[in-house]
Amino acid sequence: MNMCMFMQNTLTRLMRLPLISVALVQGKAFGGGAELTTACDFRLMTPGSEIRFVHKHMGLVPGWGGAARLVRIVGSGAALQLLGGAARVDPERALSLGLSEGTLPSSDETTALGEARAWLNQYTEGPISVIRAVKKVVTAGRELPLEAALRTEKDIFGTVWGGPANLQALVRRPKHK
Predict the structure, then answer these.
(1) For residue 101, which phi and psi values (nearest 5 degrees)?
(2) Quick one: pLDDT at residue 43?
(3) N- to C-terminal Cα distance for the chain?
(4) Long-range contacts of 112-121 (CB under 8 A, 24+ apart)
(5) What percent of the chain lies above the pLDDT cut of 70?
């Protein structure tokens, strides 16, 4: 049980980091590896890769928080299928379930890593204070009751409103381009 609690805490901390994360699945992410992918904000896969929650075959259920996070990612019906059937999830199925955001063109380890970085850059480019604020409001929306999430969003909005990134954006007028 100590390892279970340690991994739940570790993966929850990963999920709550004030940055946007992506799990790059190259090869097989089985069991604990599958659970780890659910703690990231996004999941990308390479051709021939696979995610599989094999816990059932081991007489277990996920213990690192993977089941709870999986339900939030794909919904309860799909989570039951993946957990109860210990189903193999290839890149195409992962995409259709919403478990993956996409399949990268290359299965070469180095090339795929570069492709994943380029893909992630569309979400992480810009002022770090704004990226962190975006992550905080999304985390609050996911984890808090609506009223508390709305208060948190208002508070975080107040930290960026009139800040350097906001003022620079107003000068550039990006909304109108």
Answers:
(1) -90, -15
(2) 98
(3) 55
(4) 112/24, 112/26, 112/46, 113/24, 116/22, 116/24, 116/44, 119/22, 119/44, 120/20, 120/22, 120/42
(5) 98
Hey, which residues does 89 pair with through a beta bridge?
A: 51
| Eight-class DSSP state of 121 | H
Q: How far is CA 49 from the centre of its chain?
A: 18
C-alpha 70 chain-centroid distance: 10
Residues in CB range of 60: below 8 A, 6 or more apart: none
The residue type at 42:
F
From 14, 11, 29, 20, select the one nearest 91 (Cα to Cα).
29
SS3 31: coil
- pLDDT confidence tier of residue 146, bands split at 50, 70 and 90: very high
Cα separation, 56 vs 31, whole angstroms: 10
Can you give the pTM of this predicted structure? Answer: 0.90
Type of residue at 88: R
Q: Over the chain, what is the mean pLDDT? A: 95
* Each residue's pLDDT tens digit, 75-90: 999 999 999 999 999 9
Cβ atoms 29, 52 nearer than 8 A: yes
